[in-house]
Amino acid sequence: MGRGPLAKPGSGNMYAQLRSKVHNRLIEELAGSTDSTPPDQVRQRIGELVNELVTEQNLTMTRQDKLRVIDTVIDDVLGLGPLEVLLGDPEITEIMINSSRQIYVEQHGKLSLSPVTFESNEQLMQVIDRIVSTIGRRVDESSPMVDARLKDGSRVNVIIPPLALRGPTVTIRKFAKEAFTVEDLVTFGSVTDDMVRYLRACVRGRLNVVVSGGTGSGKTTTLNILSGFIPEDERIVTIEDAAELQLRQDHVVTLETRPANIEGRGRVSIRELVINSLRMRPDRIVVGECRGGEALDMLQAMNTGHDGSLTTLHANNPRECVGRLETLVLMAGAELPSRAIREQIGSAVNIIVQQSRLRDGSRKVVSITEVLGCDGGDVQLREIFTFRQEGIDEDGKVMGAFTPTGVTPHFLEHLASEGEPLPLEMFQPVPVGEG
Ligand SMILES: Nc1ncnc2c1ncn2[C@@H]1O[C@H](COP(=O)(O)OP(=O)(O)O)[C@@H](O)[C@H]1O
Ligand SMILES: [Mg+2]
User: Fold this and answer.
1) Cα 317 to averaged position of ligand 2 atoms, centre (Å)
2) Closest Cα partner for 371 from 296, 299, 305?
3) Residue-wise pLDDT tens digits, 55-98
4) What is the pLDDT of residues 273-320, one digit of tens each?
5) How much is the pLDDT for 195?
6) Would 301 disulfide with which of 80, 306, 329, 369, CB 3.0-4.6 Å?
7) What is the dihedral of CA 154, 33, 6, 108, to 10 degrees?
8) How far is CA 48 from CA 23, 37, 51, 55, in A?
9) Where does the signal sequence lie (predicted)?
10) Peptide bond into 168 cis (omega under 30)
């Protein structure tokens, strides 16, 4: 049961006043030591103060309204204020605070304006301070952008004025309590059983896979599922900016990057972790996302015995994914000619899984594409499965069908030799209009 924000017309003012009085008295009493007083004690005292004030001021309030005031003050004092209601709502997956008065939320892939607001930018800044202080950071004019995490693992990005013109801006990607399973994705219509079967064979057969897609398109979710196909007896090293992957295998080493401290020192990048991981005798390297020079190390690892590695990359289609990889390799500072880079990509990457977030908010694997190597300086791509969009129904839902393209996968023989044979029929296209 979610509790709504305190925003009853007319009575809102009374609540706000009561709340701030309770809050002020509490601060007087505890002399600012709310963080060192046991939470249960603070909670109890808030309840008592509300009752005292209600009696003192002759307010008429229902028991339920009192409880709401108590909850709100508890959220302010012990938690993240108005954010607690949104964080506690399991339907909300992202929270986007554009200013103290404007908060958008994502539910079921759709954005909407939330009725929840902060009272002021000051209140919002207090909440921000509370979030970033847990990782020993502060946000101010000299460091106006900070990444942090909440206790539950949710990822937070903060950017404040003068960089953000309309006020302190906070973006929270809530930590998915339980990662989606492959069955979930099939039920959602994100992928078909046959596509899963093919991808499972590719992962087990040690092909190198890149999941490509835009922000929020479901890359990490798919990477998590693909990683789940890695056999139990292999040693897996995962490398992420913020550990999101939830592998169920036992033999997993989880590495996470570290941002610089307040003095600007001690940063450990994805790239350094990738290089280090090669000395950890991994069977598989899973990199949460390639967005810089680590792409080169990843390609080299894929090309030199660490086959079966997995990563994601920000791109809108498989062709763009290849181009982006090339750009990232250049960022590594290696003075390699374009052609050499493309040859590396062509031999390192075997499969590109393209994710997309469609207009109706659904996420789909819109393409599975094989990389066939490099020919005449161009990376050769061949699509094996595709999503054919056919229209939008009256509810705004995207209609369409997944289908094999009819091409026999180049890697079929390799997969069979790795003990992952697949029937040819799987790759027969569905005639247009059926399925
Ligand atoms: N196939 C899917 N169907 C529905 N929701 C999904 C699907 N894949 C991911 N999501 C949700 O979409 C959001 C973004 O997913 P994520 O995998 O983190 O994307 P990315 O890594 O591309 O930014 C999450 O809230 C996640 O739970
Ligand atoms: Mg991601």
Assistant:
1) 16
2) 299
3) 888 888 888 888 888 888 888 888 898 999 999 998 999 999 99
4) 999 999 999 999 999 999 999 999 999 999 988 889 999 999 999 999
5) 98
6) 306
7) 0
8) 12, 16, 5, 11
9) none
10) no
23 or 320: which carries more pLDDT confidence?
320
User: Which residue type, as a one-letter code, is found at position 75?
Assistant: D
Tokens 């003012």 sit on residue: 13
Q: Please state the separation of Cα 95 from the chain's center in Å.
A: 12
Q: Is the CB of 213 under 6 A from ligand 1?
A: yes
Residue type, 13: N
Cα-flanking dihedrals φ and ψ of residue 357, to 5°? -100, 115
- State in Å: Cα 118 to ligand 1 middle: 28
Instruction: Spell out the long-range contacts of 242-249 with Cβ–Cβ below 8 A and sequence spacing 24 or more.
Output: 242/147, 242/149, 242/155, 242/288, 243/153, 244/153, 244/155, 244/175, 244/220, 244/288, 245/220, 245/286, 245/288, 246/179, 247/286
| Ligand 2 center from residue 430 Cα (angstroms) | 32
Pairing of strands 284-287, 310-314: parallel
Least confident stretch, 32-36, 104-108, 254-258, 313-317: 32-36
Full-model pTM = 0.73
Q: Is 217 in the pocket of ligand 1 (CB under 6 A)?
A: yes
Phi, psi values for residue 335, rounded to 5°: -85, 60
Query: Alpha-carbon distance 427 to 18, whole Å?
Result: 67
Q: Is the minimum distance from the CB of 219 to ligand 1 under 6 angstroms?
A: yes
For residue 51 the two structure tokens come to 């009752």
320-414-416 Cα angle (round to 5): 130
Q: What is the DSSP string of 221-261?
A: HHHHHHHTTS-TTS-EEEEESS-------SSEEEEE-B---
Q: Is 93 in the pocket of ligand 1 (CB under 6 A)?
A: yes
Nearest CA to ligand 1 atom 8: 218
Token pair 């925003």 in the structure block, residue: 7
Residue 41 to residue 44: CA distance in whole angstroms: 5
Ligand nearest the Cα atom of residue 365: 1
SS3 state of residue 62: coil
Q: In this predicted structure, what is the pLDDT of residue 168?
A: 95
Choice from 87, 157, 196, 221 to test ligand 1 binding pocket (greatest atom count within 8 A of CB): 221
Instruction: Please give the structure tokens belonging to residue 151.
Output: 């206790």
